[in-house]
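Q: Given only this backbone (410 positions), what sequence would you predict?
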């Protein structure tokens, strides 16, 4: 990971594009294409004004997502309320941001889906204004602009040149490459300011395979999805992640150094080798036992006589890292997969393993191998039940907690 390439900064980002009513709205279609090329998931709200210049069909075809238009649409609200739409993206971009939209944003007016979403969001908002140069220069618009800037709204300034109204001046919507540059700069700087930037974090993931003979092994249903999602989320915030993974069908997330292992003993060795680290997160579903003295040849059936497997307990990676004499990382996190009594067992495990946090998950459903997870964060001081959500969202939430931890310890 030392010297690894900075992953494409926009890949996997979620952007909500609010298309205002301006002749330059056509540029949004190209913007969506360029963002999609860079791996951004684009959702769009098309305002009534925007609809006059681009069609919902072209926006949804290019974004490959549904276009949201009405505030009180029964189907939209059932599928995705405006609150969720306003919260589940990494950035909201208003382009074109008309004088009218800016005025409504500055005064907190919420009279349609776009303005309501902008008022309800807890995510960063960027605007790309466009209008006639007189309107742009008007004291009312400039005052609205100052209010918005003071509140933290990011601004892609309008360019000089020929305006659609025939006049010449400031008010042209920024060109698509310039908008992309601003969006990239935003994500770069937010990543750079993360306390995880440059931190070395080891994540174990997936199952382990414990050989019985050259063709058979003991394993479990772990897919590795949760551990890989955590590695990806940490890396996206600038951490140098070493992912020590048992056999899975997944490929390493961008920018993450993957060390492939088979058995628990290999995983133990590689995890120890990754020290010193700022944090170790043991997500792997490590097999409890390995088979001692595996034969070189396949074990044959012997007229009903059963082979004897001499099982030996595997090293406990989480416990040994948590109790490491010389290189105990500042933060060690374990998982506790349980089918009953989840929180109580997790609390016992926290003490027994000596780690700092346990993420307890109820695996009685299809958590192992599935895409969703139900997690409780248990620490010595508190327990917090997180909403049932995707493994990706669990990873993001855990990453936010780890960021808080490092922020506080700086
Ligand atoms: O003991 P149990 O398997 O329930 O503990 C679960 C936690 O301990 C997980 O974080 C898992 O990754 C870790 N673990 C480990 N090495 C083992 C067994 C479990 O790191 N041998």
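A: Predicted residues:
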């Amino acid at each position: 990971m030392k010297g690894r390439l900075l992953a494409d900064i926009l890949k996997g980002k979620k952007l909500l594009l609010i298309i205002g009513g301006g002749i330059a709205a056509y540029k949004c279609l190209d913007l969506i294409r360029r963002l999609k090329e860079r791996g951004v998931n684009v959702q769009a709200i098309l305002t009534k004004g925007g609809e006059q210049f681009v069609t919902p069909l072209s926006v949804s075809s290019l974004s490959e997502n549904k276009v949201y238009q009405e505030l009180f649409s029964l189907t939209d609200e059932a599928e995705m309320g405006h609150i969720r739409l306003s919260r589940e993206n990494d950035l909201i971009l208003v382009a074109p941001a008309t004088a009218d939209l800016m005025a409504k944003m500055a005064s907190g007016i919420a009279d349609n889906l776009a303005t309501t979403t902008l008022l309800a969001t807890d995510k960063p908002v960027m605007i790309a204004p466009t209008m006639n140069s007189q309107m742009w220069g008007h004291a009312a618009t400039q005052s609205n602009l100052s209010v918005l800037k003071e509140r933290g709204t990011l601004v892609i300034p309008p360019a000089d040149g020929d305006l659609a109204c025939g006049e010449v001046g400031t008010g042209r919507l920024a060109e698509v490459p310039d908008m992309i540059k601003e969006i990239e700069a935003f994500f770069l700087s937010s990543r750079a300011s993360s306390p995880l930037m440059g931190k070395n974090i080891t994540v174990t993931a997936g199952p382990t395979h414990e050989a019985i003979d050259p063709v058979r092994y003991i394993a479990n249903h772990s897919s590795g999805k949760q551990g890989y999602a955590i590695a990806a989320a940490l890396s996206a915030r600038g951490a140098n992640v070493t992912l020590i993974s048992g056999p899975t069908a997944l490929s390493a997330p961008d920018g993450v150094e993957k060390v492939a292992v088979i058995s628990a003993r290999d995983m133990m060795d590689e995890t120890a080798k990754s020290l010193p680290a700022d944090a170790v997160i043991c997500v792997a579903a490590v097999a409890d036992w390995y088979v001692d003295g595996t034969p070189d040849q396949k074990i044959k059936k012997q007229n009903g006589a059963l082979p004897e497997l001499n099982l030996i307990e595997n090293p406990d990676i989480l416990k040994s890292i948590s109790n490491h004499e010389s290189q105990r990382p500042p933060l060690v996190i374990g998982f506790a997969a349980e089918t009953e009594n989840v929180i109580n067992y997790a609390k016992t495990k926290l003490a027994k393993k000596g780690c700092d946090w346990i993420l307890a998950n109820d695996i009685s459903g299809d958590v192992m191998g599935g895409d969703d997870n139900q997690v409780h964060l248990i620490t010595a001081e508190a327990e917090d039940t997180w909403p049932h959500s995707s493994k990706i969202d669990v990873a993001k939430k855990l990453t936010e907690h780890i960021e808080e931890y490092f922020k506080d310890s700086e």
